[in-house]
Prior knowledge:
CATH superfamily of the largest domain: GAF domain
CATH topology of the largest domain: Beta-Lactamase
Number of strands: 30
Oligomer: single chain
Low-confidence stretches: 74-84
CATH architecture of the largest domain: 2-Layer Sandwich
Structural class: alpha+beta
Number of domains: 6
Shape: elongated
Mean pLDDT: 82
Distance between the termini: 137 Å
Helix content: 40-55%
Amino acid sequence: MVFDPRLTGIITQIARSPFPWVERLEKVAEVVLQMSGFDAVSLATVAPFTPGAAGVFRPQPQHRPYDVVSVTENVPFPARVTSAPSLSRQVLESGQPVFAPSPGECLSEKTHCVATLFQFSKICVQAVLPLATQEGCAGVMVVGAHTNRAAPPPPPLDRDGLMQLAQHIALALENAHLQEESRRVQMFASLIAAANQGADFRQTTQAVIATLRDLLPFQMAVIGLVDESQSTLQNFFLNASGKLLETMPPVAVEASVVNVLANESTPYTRFDLSLPPLCPHHARLAGYGFQSALSFRLQSQQQTIGHLSLASASPHTFADRSLDWLAPLLPALSIVLQKAYFQDALERRATELKDLILLNDRFLSRPEPDAIIDTFLTHVPRLVPAEIHGILLSLSDEVKMGLNLPSNAGDALRQQVQKAMWETLESSHPARRPPPSPADVQIRRHATFLPPDWEIKSTLAWPILSMQGVLGVVYAAYGEEFSVPSTLLRLYSLVVSSLAAALENSQLLSKVTAERAMLVSVLNSTPDGILVVNREGRILLDNPAARRALGYTPNRQQVSLTDITDNQDLLALFEAARQRDSVTEEITTANKQTFYTSIRPVHVPEEEAVIGWIVVLQNVTHFKELNEAKDHFVNIVSHDLRSPLTNIYIATQLLKTLGPLEDSQEELTTIIEKYVRQMTNLIDDLLDLSKIEANIEPEMEANNLNEMVREVVEELRPQAEKKSITLQTDLPDTSYRVRCNLNRLRQVTVNLIENAIKYTPPDGQVMVQLSVQDNSLLCRVTDTGIGIPKKALPHIFEKFYRVKQAEGAQKGSGLGLSICKTIIEQHRGRIWAESQLNKGSTFSFVLPLCEN
């Protein structure tokens, strides 16, 4: 054949046409067939071109219903061309053409459609030519003629013309391929640019739809993306301009078109929407009136992330014409859509977090049940949308409910929702009271207008759980059936947790408020002044009695103790309490009132840390006055009694000087002397106690108590020996000095040892010990006497107190131990007793040692 230059323009136009690649190969082969003397032409391409093959031939006249017959083959061809031994493979690898030796001879070629085209039609292969490009051989062209041709035999092959034709076809296909690649790169770049610009999901989908609109005819697109849990899929419906029309409720991945696409070998599948729908979004597209749909599988890193579906109102709209253009863009589309979707999801999470924090703050700032319901109905519908929202609170003393309903919701729907909420509460926590009355139900209405046939198809009911049990139910109702996504579950969980915490805080606050009110009532009714002071010395709590005692007015702000009083005795006592924990002392205020003041630390349970102090001011002014009157009376009576007693005693002594007395007279005088001595001792004790309690500071000096104790023991030893009692001492070798009034301490020591001898049976033991403990001198008097009952121990240092068990055996004034206690406390010491009944007692006192 002779190369016809007219083929150049025609082949170039066909190569650049929008037809699918194989159709373009077929049309080029047909043009070559028409303008050459051959009976068959076949074209096959491999990478970098799109793989495919197409051939055409002229049937014999007796087989002609058609002038030209076409045979095409798509993807399988390249693999067979490059693997099976054949002339096509030889030409592909060498890049050199193969020609028949003469016009009447045939070449053997059994590859792809060539076998069907040439052998079945009895066509002789005359030449196999390479389609050479700059990157190498990208295909072959095969030409041939009928073996039983009735016409004159074909002329000799124009090898140069065939080579020139093959080169032009290769050049035209290469230019078309490069043009398509450029267009794909441009589309890919636009998508990547949209992603890199940080566009949101709406802007990204608009860019995607604009790109697809240049490739495929469609009127609506559906983008479905799998959520983070890989369990549900959200479908977004967009028009041909990329505007979002609708967002379907989430569906399970297993029930979506993604599950259908996963079983397909190709990345796309066509669907006839006139058939029963395979998934919810197909049903929705059919409801819009669309006839056909084309769905693509979206993948990222070998993982399915969703689908892209295009819908058309006409059947059979989506041919193969542009699918091979779109397939290379799917990975980029997947990445761009997933990035935008997750970016929007991240922004939604941030917004949801802010809304949750605001919601939690509102719950906590208004913890009353009615306020909580109001906050829930105002803010939760914006956070988790639904057609109906409800909240039911079942608290210890009341049941309340709140509903957020569409504007046209009737009583039947309201009653249905209330019943469902109450049944949910009953199933998780049987109520002990009837459902809420209409007065206890808050009803809000939003602008949504429900269609007449609307009904509840999906519900979410979530119990409000706390440490105290079930506090209520949160409810949401939807008019669509959908699978609950994990994001919605997580969001509802956070809302309910915040709600539970607010309700629990509300109940605790009510309880604390009631307890505080009771505490304030008790404090206000208490006649004693009470102050609670923290570690910094600021007053946390007080009562009216304390304010009256210290003469200050209440202040809402915390003030320190020094701000309300300048009483130095009280301030010094508080400083002493900080150093020594508990202190007790009488103080006198400016208005001459005397208060018995006790300051004790407040500890955290099970901890030793001091968190503050409690100050109790007991007004003892009246009792002090009574005591002074009593002391005055005692002094007068004591002095008035001492003179007669002295005269009586002198009279008994004078009787003895007048002459011998009879036995009865002697006995009577002895009795008189005994009772005179007892009365004198009692008067001496009363006068002594009055002097001590008069707060007259005795003269103090440093003394060594070792010698004083030895002297007292030796003085009292005859009393012990008279009862066969062993009196022992245990004194330290080192002399320790105590600042004291030695006569007063001698009085204490004598009293304690005399009591030990007095209440110890014959053959018993009395031990007097001195020792040093913690910079203090400890004196202990231990006996093996009758002991003291446990219930009497706290009272033995009280004035005139006598242990009843001992009254029958020993007589006394009941003032001795009280005098001892007063003397020891004047010396800034402490005295106490330990005893076991019928085993003995130990009386101890400690005094601070001199610093030197």
